[in-house]
Amino acid sequence: MADQIAELMQSMGRRARAAAADLASAPAPQKAAALEAAADALLADIPALLAANEADLAYGRDKGLSPAMMDRLKLDDGRIRAIAEGLRAVAAQADPVGQVMAEWDMPSGLHIRRVRTPLGVIGVIYESRPNVTADAGALCLKAGNAVILRGGSESFHSSTAIHAAMVKGLRAAGLPEDAIQLVPSRDRAAVSEMLRMVDHIDVIVPRGGKGLVGLVQAEARVPVFAHLEGICHVYLDKAADPANARRVVLNAKTRRTGICGAAECLLIHRDLVDGLGAQVIADLVAAGVEVRAGEGLHHLPGVKPASADDFGREFLDMIIAAAVVDDVDGAIAHIRRYGSQHTESILTEDDAAADRFFQRLDSAILMRNASTQFADGGEFGMGAEIGIATGKLHARGPVGAEQLTSFKYLVNGNGTIRA
Fold first, then answer.
1. pLDDT, tens digit, for every residue of 160-194?
2. How far apart are CA 354 and CA 44, in angstroms?
3. Structural domain for 405, as ranges
């Protein structure tokens, strides 16, 4: 079986490399047409997609997935239509390939341009969210890249059905069907093969939990765009607007608990503990959130004492850690110690406190008076995202089509020689 998986992956890699050569010069309207046709195919196949998803949900129930993970896995009519709209949004964006990033003239007579160019072949390894099949396929195609997708075992049937719609779009637009490939196996050996395919894959993007990302980073020989845990913090500053703060904290935790932008830790200024802080915690408890509280908060109704490992933990559930800090510097110190450099939000009307929070933290996304649930490429105007990159090289924050390009220099002379 291992030999068969290796042979399969090498074949997919060769075909992806050939497709990438064609995509690099594909006209922007042709790529947009493929995405529009894929969106049409998704909407035409809603009954089949829902049936495929039901098979995955049954598989998830048998595996004992948590409610939050089941929510990640679930498709319904509205979510499928949202996936289709995401494809259309990516199609409508400006094509990044060939964009001139900078240009200048040199005294030697050379005219130099730095222009965006595709990365080549991208491998995307993800877990239970089937919409990633469409998002990653669309963004890679928009940026002129071929992609090999390896979805989670839980979303196998849903991802297969979505991939079929993407292939229909490619076929309708006359683009190579190998431009978007899905590994047709749940065998984990396929992941190990992808991580070693330096001849065929230019970059790996892992999208999932700490275990998956850790495995990829430890074993990959192919360069990796890191997408680590979403240990997102919300800091309730002493100058927070009470109505806004209560609304934002509740949304940041409860809108969807299973996404990487969900708040996992609430930091409360010491002066607010028995006032606005108590109200915010009461709101969370009333909404069904288990609040695991640190010292200084144990007296509040409905909370449970936090253990040491509740801070720096991605719950992805109706659970949040809460701690008291002395001021904005205390919040910054806590986030530096426990955060994953994903997304942090400060709730304050104090410009100086907000500026300090923005200047002294280095997370990929920093917000003021806004829910961390906005940590999403679609909400950033990118149409979709392939993940939130928390590393510092090449791509950071929501990874959209533009971040899936590199660049090259185009240099023009007129018989120009170097002295």
1. 999 999 999 999 999 999 999 999 999 989 999 99
2. 47
3. 2-225+399-412
